[in-house]
Input
Amino acid sequence: MVLMTTSDLPLKRIARGKVRDVYEVDGDRLLLVATDRVSAYDVVMAEPIPMKGAVLTQTSAWWFRQLEGVVKHHMIAANADAIIAAVPALKPHRAEIAGRAMLCRRGTVFPIECVVRGYLSGSAWREYFKQGTLAGETLPPGLKESGRLDPPIFSPATKAESGHDENITIGRMAEVLGKDVTAELERLTRVVYTKGRDVALKQGIIIADTKFEFGRTESGDILLIDEVMTPDSSRFWPLDGYAPGKPQPSFDKQPLRDWLDVERHAGRWNGDAPAPRLPAEVVDATSKRYLEAYRRLTGAELSV
Output
């Protein structure tokens, strides 16, 4: 498979994120291309992670298929041949888009990340540990790190172009989007997460928390968009060995973060770009972690 850090396709590129490049196909469709770029601590690494883009795209595609009839979504196709049939100009670029591209319905993105937390971890745990709150709202006393939350907590966040997203209250979200839209996005977030959590548990994976994005078409349909319950947008933990009261191992870029932590503590990296060059073993371990997440979740090896 082609290793990609930057895409260059014969379409108008309208956005470039830390991982994804977004192209305009026409007024109704977009092409999302997940590169193999990887970021940690808000810094994009120079070295790509083999198969990462395909894992993110095909994990999302797998979820969109599981969610048929549960929520409307933006995916039209994630198979290279089907994409080329719809957009013939991409035929010479089949090797570049195979596995990593998704043809999508176009919509206006709501400027809020819809975060749902089924377990108390990460920034939510840090705030709770210090203040007993999440986004300033009080939580029950006595909760444990990595403990399950019943019901899950809907915890919206602002979308940051750079740096960290910021947790906000539902009231603040309603000020931005209106009460009706906020209520519908919370409802959809809970429905999708519940479905995903239950499916993943059967596969031996805990989805501790995840974030969704939604958009609205010109006809008014609200669509689930972007990536869905991937190792980048979610905290995946192995069910076997789960023990609340401490951090859990995760199926994501943890090998990369661990190595960078050592570099920072040793004074060899100050946390700013550019990051130090990644050793081959760290790149390989990170790639294997992503592929293992896909295999465990879907029950199949990733082939593109």
Residues 12-106 form a domain with the Phosphorylase Kinase; domain 1 fold (CATH 3.30.200.20). The mean pLDDT is 94.
